[in-house]
Amino acid sequence: MDEEISIIDTNTRNEKIKNFFIKNKKILIIIASTLLILIIGFTSLDSIQKKNKINLADKFNLATIKFKNDSTQITVDDLTNIVKENDVTYSPLALYFLIDNDLIKNPEEINTLFDELIDKTNLEEEIKNLNIYKKALFNSNFVSENELLQILNPVINSKSIWKSHSLYLVAEYFYAKGEKEKAKEFFNQILTLPKANSDIKLASQKRVNRDLGE
């Protein structure tokens, strides 16, 4: 008797499942098709991104080779285009190469490329902060104190690992201008910073003791 009831229950359950699929056949087909399209789409996107990364690597290497062969303007154009690709790896490398080799003389052009990295490239937070610091370092020889602080404020007002570097840059900026009180203020901020870079902290302490003592 129990076996017969079990068979009936199983048949009833199977019938319900069958009816469910029959009644919802169109919806289930749409869901399955959508999932398949999404899987194919993600796979294709990943494949395209990998190909783009390889192409950018080839373009970067070729641009640096052209520079060695004295085709400077071609190198500048190629590397500038790579920066504007907003790739998290090769866009920063391209800008650093341009700066390190002094290939662009106009500071505004360099700043525009920095903004391309900082504002439009999907960099990790600390890599973004590093580029803000590098932008400030690049500009520190010819901008006003307000402009320098404006560039660095996002890092100075954060808990970034680059905060102590940024404070040190501002402190040295004021020290070079002979504004010792302002310089001391920023050096002291580094000395009280819980997670300041150890080398930066030591250099700040030496500067305060040696050059900014009472």
Mean pLDDT, rounded to whole units?
A: 84
Name the structural class. mainly alpha
Q: How many individual domains? A: 2
SSE run: HHHHHHHHHH
| Measured distance between first and last alpha carbons | 102 Å
Quote the beta fraction: under 5%
Main pleated sheet: none
Alpha plus pi helix count: 10
- Kindly state the number of beta strands: 0
* Uncertain runs: none
The Cα radius of gyration reads: 29 Å
Percent helix range:
over 70%
| Apparent shape | flat
Structure description:
There is one protein chain. The protein is mainly α and 214 residues long. The protein has two domains: 16-123, no CATH class; 143-214. The chain is built from ten helices and no strands. The chain has helices spanning 2-23, 25-68, 72-83, 90-100, 107-120, 125-139, 145-156, 163-176, 180-191, 198-211. Helix 2 (25-68) packs parallel to helix 4 (90-100), helix 5 (107-120) packs antiparallel against helix 6 (125-139) and helix 9 (180-191) packs antiparallel against helix 10. It is flat and about 90 Å long. The model has no long low-confidence stretch (mean pLDDT 84).
Quick take:
The protein has 214 residues and is an all-alpha fold. It has ten helices and no strands.
